[in-house]
Amino acid sequence: MLTLFHISDLHFGPPYYPEIGEKVRAFAHELEPDIIVASGDFTQRAREEQFRAARNYLDRLPQVPIVVTPGNHDVPLHDVWRRMTDPFGRYREYINPDLDTVTRLPGLVVVALNSTAPRRAIVNGRISRRQLAYARRAFEETPEGDLRVIVSHHHFAPPPDFEGADVMPKAKRALDALTSMNVDLILGGHLHRGYIGNSLDVYSGANREYGIVIAQSGTTTSRRGRAREREKNSFNVIRMDDHVIRVTHYMHFEDADGFLPTSRHIFFRGGRLRHQAEAAAAVSDHNRGYHVNVRLQA
Q1: How far is C-alpha 93 from the chain's CA centre?
Q2: What is d(CA 38, CA 8) in angstroms, rounded to the nearest whole number?
Q3: Does 227 or 138 have the greater pLDDT score?
Q4: Are the CB atoms for 11 and 45 separated by under 8 Å?
Q5: 94: which of 25, 51, 234, 271 fits an S-S bond (Cβ 3.0–4.6 Å)?
Q6: Between the CA of residue 11 and those of 21, 198, 248, what are the distances in Å?
Q7: 27-53 burial, b for 16+ CB within 10 Å, e for fewer?
Q8: DSSP character for 43?
Q9: What counts of helices (H) and strands (E) characterise the chain?
Q10: Is residue 283 within 8 Å of 266, Cβ to Cβ?
Q11: Count of alpha carbons within 13 Å of 3, Cβ hemisphere only?
Q12: pLDDT tens across 191-239, in order?
């Protein structure tokens, strides 16, 4: 069983909430994850002091592999010259010198794709054919049965209750390509509102026998939550094995002075029906007080 801690949209700068940030850090150390994913928007305005603060924060998280990807707020907005000539300079210096990455653990490969397009679209993202080819090469070198995860900042699917959340251009093309690569899970942020579901919920796809689990995190440490997470903070804890992907969505509640699980979603990898009874029994003692969504991935 692998445990993945998924945070997003930290927004260091004026929107960053230091008290929440320390609670998230404490939660991460208590969780002891195998890997951490931070899916973009480390800063509010891509300023050097904001990147320094974000780097310091990442360095104080558990010392496990951390997968990162840029967000649209990590490229300059008002400094047009820098955005045109060196949009990722500070991100490369403080967060990661590479924009597309492959991270491998035993039984798991995570491919992070930079979905920002600072010269074409300030807010909306893009995933290019070149990046899809990069992901395909990475997965071709992945043993059969290993978990395959994609990370991007921008969303491939809108949450069903949030208006105005247009997906990336060519998102359907990307989903079809990722489906052909047998990707198990897509992680992202950007919306400041969590969403956990399946690609088949929003797009039937070229292959209607296989869907990809999609887990969006809300904003983990800023005051910029939206929709039902307005002024809320959230993250995901994902536990994965050969048969099942379990996504638990956590939100912060002031009355509880901490983060509490608000929903749990169980997906069976590859339609392995014979494992449903075992997985259902495993969660039967934990399904009171919050929503449990059990469904097939394929």
Answers
A1: 22
A2: 5
A3: 138
A4: no
A5: 51
A6: 11, 27, 23
A7: bbeeeebbbbbbbbbbbbbbeeebbeb
A8: B
A9: 7, 13
A10: yes
A11: 12
A12: 999 999 998 888 877 777 788 999 999 999 999 998 889 989 999 999 9
CB 250 within 8 A of CB 229: no
**What is the residue whose two structure tokens read 């002031």?**
254
Q: How far apart are CA 288 and CA 245, in angstroms?
A: 20
Tokens coding 214:
């999609």
Instruction: Round to whole Å and give the CA distance between 148 and 146.
Output: 6
Specify the DSSP element, H or E, that contains 131. Answer: helix 129-140
CATH assignment of the domain containing 50:
3.60.21.10
pLDDT tens, position by position, 231-279: 899 999 999 999 999 999 999 999 999 999 999 999 988 644 334 444 4
Do residues 187 and 39 make contact, with C-beta atoms less than 8 angstroms apart?
yes
Tokens representing 291 are: 């929503």
Tokens linked to 19: 């008290």
Q: CA-based Rg of the chain, rounded to a whole angstrom?
A: 18
First to last CA, the chain: 20
Token pair 């990442």: residue = 58
What's the CA gap between 295 and 275, in Å, rounded? 12
Packing angle between helix 171-180 and helix 129-140, nearest 10 degrees? 10
| 3-state SS, residue 140 | helix
Residue numbers of the domain that contains 29:
2-296
Number of domains in the chain: 1
